[in-house]
Amino acid sequence: MNKLIALFLAFFQIGLFSIGGGYAVMPAIQEQVVHQHGWLTEKTFTDIITISQMTPGPIAVNTSTFVGIQIAGIPGALVATFGCVISGVVLAVLLFRFFQRHQGSLYVSETLKGLKSASLGLIASAAATILLLTFCGTSDLNFGTAIPLNWMAVALFSAALFLLHRKKISPIPAMLLTGVAGLFLY
Would you indicate the residue range of the signal peptide (predicted)? Predict the structure, then answer.
């Protein structure tokens, strides 16, 4: 199948079936581009997520754009981004109409509670994958063997966490500071 068609279909599916948006969509993107199609390695995927975090806009759109560029250049970026966005737009319009009609329903309210829990699980899964790749170099841990730990990554993570939660600085300066530190320390 043509790579552009495959990109569109993969990201259309991601946009259509990813509940929760943001980081909740990362496991679905990873499944498609790393495991199912083999377009990217786990490391390249993690690097793309990092770049996507630093650029303005929704992370799912940024990630689809960067994955598309990596796989098929500018046409790939356009096709992947369009596939990701158009499915979400169609789904959002349909869901909006549904919720307008059934906004007082107990079933709808309880379903939304379940979806919130599932979204949290998806976000935690994406965070665990990024954490393991950053700290250990792999997301596929075998608990019977020793796991190498990148202490520099742990230190930079801790510094960013401290700056964000204790010093209450904006994420952009925190990322810039730890990025500059990484440039000199690695």
Answer: none
